[in-house]
Amino acid sequence: MNMPTSPVRRLSQDVLHFIFLANAEEAEIVPCSPQSSWYEPGSPLHPLITTRRSSQVCREWRQVILSSASLWGRLLDMDALQQEKPHWREEVLHRAGSTAPLWISRAAKINPHGPPPPAVMNFLFWILYTCWERIEILVLRIEVEDFIGWTSATQMMMQSAPALRRFTFLPPLFIDVDHRVLVPSMFSNNAPCLQEFVAPILHFESTSKFTSLRSLTTSFHRKFSTLTGVISCMPLLEELAVFPSPGPPSVHEFDLDQLLRSTPNITLPRLKDLLIQGTLPACLLLAKVIEPAAGCALNFEGDSGTGEVFSGTVLAALGRLFNKYFTAYFNFYHETDTDWTFHVGVTEFMVDVKLETGLDGDLPSSFQLSWENPSSSQGEEIIRALFFPSLAASSSSSSRESTNAPRLLTRFAAVESLSVWNRLLESVKPCVREIFAAFTGLRTLRGSKDDLSFLLLPPAPLITPAPNSNTDASSDNNSDHPPASTAPSPVFPKLHTLTWSHWALSTSDITAGVIPILQKRVEEAYKLRLLAFSGYGDLEFGLANFEVMMQEYVGPLVGRVRWRDGQDVVELWAEERAAGGLIPMDY
């Protein structure tokens, strides 16, 4: 760098100091789930390594960095302090001075399959013991046994934490299902600055009150009322994640109906992200009693844990809950140009519904129910309860509340752009077609061959098994499970653009998928304006044959066709078709 002429040279020391502090905030980028990776000790992304290298650029930068105790207080990054000799660890702590707030992060292992370095662990526990009241951010990734041993020996978790703003404790396996630790008088109920608490294995006691919390990650308590009591004292919560807990469920199926009526609501006016995993009764009850902010994204994963069929009361409650959250979510995020993604999955063991916008930063909403024993009929019952709550209401005792529940289905008519992805049992497809028929305002549709064929082509006729001579003919008429009706495919009268997602396009995809869909739209007087192929995969029959098929067979059925040729985008227009015109586009 040519220092006399460099623009960086003209920055004041205050601006430089602000930049160095911002670089140190990388210490807050710590994963809170097992799916995320932890940086290796030598990674340049560690703020301590970034700061040390910055101090070697020039004398002025070094002076600013070495003179800032608040900067070094943020750099107690244990992943970058795993040297055998203690000199560098002691030097970093010395540069932090005696009063600056401390950020302690990521006490991870160099070898994930071996024990943590003893010197690093001893240094960590020594800082926690001697500097507890200065700690502003504490992120621990250590074994549960080490954590329990430390808390038992020092009782530090029961001490006031006047500066603590963020606390995270995640064992290497994220949630150790064999442990749940109740910490009596956590932080002595005195952590006035605490905004984020991520520790699924640590349980508050019923008297805990941390009113400043913005983000809480915990797990279900043995007593459901303890969890709700703690949450009710956190009116500023913006994010809440509750994970399963080992042992008996906190809410049993036999008292769910009573609890749904008697448990008071909890108003959390700022809550925008709610994740709940666990037994179905506990998840259902917690989501039901919480009154979140408008547009709160719900991620619900309930496991019935039994092979029993869901009762009418539970189905009605699920329908109310689903429509309460998903309708509010839709209303909050929907604009005319919103690109929605909608997924419905039904297997023999699970129902999964997901709704999300195409905007970066927006949280998706998902609703998943699972059970142990295979049941092909259970999925359809649940889907109908979620999307057609008035039908489920007729079999429950709380029919009046169910009938008046908001219905997501009535809002789908406002959607103009939609991506679909479905995984369905054959028996459920007629019901799901009824759901998609609500998208009457749809103009743009994206999906794979299977999804688009499912929605836009007539359903295959049901094959009725031949009568058995040993079976009473009247038994079919009296069956408790009549065959599903073949609901017609949705019409989508305003649809004008179809995007065909693919990885490897074959001849059969064109002849058995694309052409029949386009022909059906023409026959119904709903000819498409644009068919776009969005895949980057191979064309199994070659580009030249693909272009011929587009011109001769596909082109006459649609206004224009668009596809990719390498990095180029090619379009075939109706008016150019007679001359074989292929128009390359610069996108």
From TrEMBL:
Protein name: F-box domain-containing protein
The organism's taxonomic lineage, starting at the top: Eukaryota, Fungi, Dikarya, Basidiomycota, Agaricomycotina
Biased composition (Low complexity): 466-477
Region (Disordered): 466-488
